[in-house]
Each structure stands twice: as C-alpha cells, then as structure tokens.
Amino acid sequence: MKKLFAKHNNWFFKAGFILTTVMVFIVLLGQVWTPYDPNAMDASVKAQGPTLRHLLGTDFFGRDILSRILEGAGATLQIAFFVVLIGAVLGTVIGALTGYFGGVVDEVLMRICDAITAFPSVLLALIAIAVIGPGRLNVIMVLGCVFIPSFARIVRAEFVRIKRLNYISLARLQGVGDFRIMLKHILPNTLPTLLPAISIGFNNAVLAEASMSFLGVGVSASEVSLGRMLSDSQNYILRGLPWYAVFVGLTIALLILGFSLLAEGLQQRR
Amino acid sequence: MNKILEVKHVSASYTTQGNAFAREKVQIVLHDVSFDLYEGEALGLVGESGSGKTTVARAILGFLPRYEGEIIHHSKRPQLIFQDPYTSLNPARTVGWILEEPLKVYGKFDAPERRRRIIEMLENVGLSEEYMSRRPSELSGGQRQRVSIAAALIVRPRLVIADEPVSALDVTIQAQILQLLDEMREKYGLSYLFISHDMNVVYQLCDRVIVMKKGVIVEDAPIDDIFDHPQHPYTRELVEASR
User: What radius of gyration do chain B's Cα atoms show?
Assistant: First the structure.
C-alpha cells in the first residue's frame, strides 16, 4: 500500500483513493446499520423532500431514501465486485494463455472475443437475461461473462509484448517452466496496465447494473439497487419531487468519479 | 584440450513473406558456419551488424527454430548475457528474487543455502548484500550488467555467451565489466563466446577470434595473428578501424 502511494504520488490517485474509501465505507456501514428500515413504510411522511428526520427525504410509501440508497448501493457494489472478479480472473487466464502460447487457440478465442465485443455489452446482457431470467445471481454471471473479452484483450496484449523481452528469454534459458514464467515473471509486469483496467471495469459494471435494473431486467422487483431506484425515481420528477432522482444519481456519480480518479491516478506515475 | 561446444556446418535462412507487390525471397543469414569452442577459451565472434553473429548465438541457445547442420553441447545450461542491461532484468522483481529464481527452479538448495549463494555471487560481481532488495530501476547500467552477469553465473554454467555485453556502457564502465568477465573466467573456468563488433573490446578479453561477414566465417585465428597478420581484407579493415 505504501509502495503504491509512493509510485503514484499524484492528485488523481489521492483524491480517488479518499473518495472511494469514503464511499465504500459508507456503503459498508449501510450493510450493518441504516437510519431506518429500508423497507419500512410510514404513511405520516409520504413523499417528502429532505427534512431533519429524513435527510434525503422519503418516497410515496414513506420509506427513508437515505436508508434505501445505502442498501441499494450495497447491492450495486456487490454485483459490480463479482462482475469484475469474474471478468478479470477469467479474462486474465484466457489472455495469458492465448498471449503466451499463441497459435490456433489464440485465433479462435480472440475471434470469439471480437464477436462478443461487437455487440454493446448491455444489449448482449439483456438478451442473455431474457433467456435465463432476471435476478442478482444471473445478472452477475451474465455481466461477468460479457466483461471477460475486455480483460482478455488487455492481458493478451501485455503477454505478447512482455514474452519477447530479454528477461523472459533468460528465464527460459535458466530452465523456468512456462507456467511459472507466466505467473511469476510476466503477470507482475502486467499490473500497471491491469489495475487501471480493473477500476475502469468496476465503473462500467456499476453503470451496466444500473442500466439493466433501470430497464427492469436487473435485480428482481423486490430488491433494491441503485439502477432500480433510479428507474423508480422517474415517477417522482414529474410530480415535483426531483430529490429522489438527484440523490440516487449523485450516489452513482460519486462512486464512479472515485473509481475513475483512482484509475487515472494508477495510470499516471507521479 | 576438451571441446565444450561444436558447431558443424550450420546454415540458416528465412523466407520473407511475399505479397501482391513482392515475391517471396529467401534470405540467407548463415552459410556453412563451423567452429569448435574449447574449455576455458574466450572466443570472440566479430562482424558488422547483419553479419549473422547474433544468429549464431541464437542457434546455439536453441532460440532459432530452424537451421541446418549440427550443434553439439558438451556442457549443460549455457547462459547468456545480453547487450541491453535495461531489458534483461525483470523490472517487477528485486535483484535478490532475480538471482534466487534459477536456484529455486534448480531445486536442490534450501532457503539459507540459496541466500548464501546469492550473497557470494553478488560479492563476486562487486555488489554488496544490500543490493538484494533493490529493483533494476534503481541501478545504473553498469550495476545492471553486473547483476546480469551474476544471474548468468549463479547456475554455474561452463559456457557463457555474451552478446555485446559492454556496447551499451560508458568506456570506463566497459573496462570494469571486461575485467570482471575475465576474473570470472579464471575463477569458474568458464568458456566465453564473446560477440562484438568492436575489435578493441575483443582484444581485451579473447584468446581467439572468428570474423564473420554476410553469414560466412572469413577468418578464424588466435587474437595476436588477427592483429599482426590479418589474412582477409575484411579483417584488415576491422583491425585498421580499431587502431
């Protein structure tokens, strides 16, 4: 951690790190404690703007919006986390194997990746969800698979570049095996490229989940997520209650801003 | 004296890919190259760029996928020292890790023994123990080349191929590295195949010189003969240029 800071001693990294830490901390806090029960309805405070009792106001059912945002952001982050985990891990494995060994397998897998990339990722995910049905787990699996090609491509390019370098030839001369070379000699050198890609991927995953839930094919109707809340909040705007949409949108914006700054900071050295 | 390496009638060529505007062309890079390298000998391989000297090294180390002829090794695990000290060390790893890796792969030594050998080798090449925790980016060109030499020698090879190991260094550092290579040869009884375009550098280290031009060996003689009575006009040119 200390090393990371020394290496990326720039304002993007610092600001991104602080913002992300604060946001993640708030969201994590929301998992164990919220001011009100996110699903508790209270007819006496229906559809209010921000008040001292309900800092971000309430919805038509009198549910506390702050509590719901905390809960919903948790769901969204959880989905984004697993989506990136699936995409990055499988993408790295595929990219490493194809980049290192090349040949027919490389051609076939990369053409499949091209085909997947040719579709807008959310569209592709929509089709898959239409087939296997909505729900948190399905969203994670589908988005995860859709995210694989972008990581595979980045990692493959790095492996192709690095495997030609002299220190890899020397490792081979010293009798280091292929898989050890991939894991211990090449992979650490892909991190400067992979880390920013992971935080950008995290952003895209947050947005993808939000878009899908917004369109009503993300998490199921009984669950809360930022995308679903944004979708719900449309009804409030026309009835003179813009607060709901503003606060949900702001939460998404702050989350993404944090990760974007982090990614930018990781790409810049000093 | 025992032979440590025999190169017999090695020829290599590559075919340039043809396209709509150019026909396929066969480019000969090595033509009937033969020489022996003896134990404890430092053999210089001299020629201009494009003469095929690096291709010879690649063939010997098994990096050349296709060639005709035969290469017989009488030693295990020949090692290589590259010209460019900036790409021959893994930038993500410390010097200690880089030196430990071949020992780990070799598998016969426990952790304390590996550490002992690393420190011993670092001292051999004129670096102290504290360099173990340094990364290549924190080292100068000369220091990097010392680490490269340590990494090559730590597996105790008997044959070391050095491809222009001092060309990227300042003249004063060049002399130090050449002296180090000479000391290591004596200490470990190494044989060198020393590739260079610079006769002066070769003169400081080698016993015998092979001169190559356009993939063919044009002269193979002891170092003093090369300088005193160069036979081939191209050798004469090289010697003149170095005076």
Answer: 19
Q: How far is CA A89 from the centre of its chain?
A: 14
Question: Given an 8 Å threshold on Cβ–Cβ distance, is A174 in contact with B102?
Answer: yes
pLDDT at A270 over 60: no
What is the CA angle B211-B216-B220, rounded to 5? Answer: 35
Cα–Cα distance measured from residue A158 to residue A88, given in angstroms and rounded to the nearest whole number: 14
Could you tell me which CATH number the domain at A10-30+56-269 has? 1.10.3720.10
Report the C-alpha gap between B105 and B120 in whole angstroms: 19
Alpha-carbon distance of A256 to A202, in angstroms, equals 8
Is B76's Cβ below 8 Å from some Cβ in A? no
Is the ipTM higher than 0.90? The answer is no
Q: Taking all residues of chain A, what is their mean pLDDT, rounded to a whole number?
A: 88
Q: Which helix (H) or strand (E) holds A245?
A: helix A243-267
Of A120, A114, A81, A121, whose CA–CA distance to A98 is shortest?
A114
CB A91 within 8 A of CB A99: no
Cα–Cα distance, A255 to A242 (Å, whole number): 20
Instruction: Detail the DSSP E strand segments found in chain A.
Output: none
A1: pLDDT strictly greater than 90: no
The region that residue B217 occupies, defined by phi over 0 for left and psi between -120 and 50 for alpha, beta otherwise, is beta
* Token pair in block for residue A192: 């400067």
Helix (H) or strand (E) holding B99: helix B95-106
Indicate which of A166, A169, A190, A191 best probes the interface with B, i.e. most B CBs within 10 Å of its own CB. A166
Average pLDDT over residues A86-97: 95
> What gap in Å lies between CA A170 and CA B154, rounded to an integer?
13
